[in-house]
Amino acid sequence: MTLSIVAKDKKTNDFGVCGFTDIAGYGSLV
Questions:
Q1: DSSP state of 30
Q2: Residue 25 and residue 4: Cα distance in Å, rounded?
Q3: Cβ-based burial of 21 (10 A; exposed 0-12, middle 13-18, buried ≥19)
Q4: What is the count of structural domains for the chain?
Q5: What pLDDT, on the 0 to 100 scale, is given for residue 30?
Q6: Which helix (H) or strand (E) holds 10?
Q7: Are the C-beta atoms of 21 and 5 separated by less than 8 Å?
């Protein structure tokens, strides 16, 4: 989970707290 949050916050710069996406970190805040 930590990897997804970091990747998301660095890739799409979206909600890192709600980083419930894959390793890629596709802006998916749903």
A1: -
A2: 6
A3: buried
A4: 1
A5: 41
A6: helix 2-11
A7: no
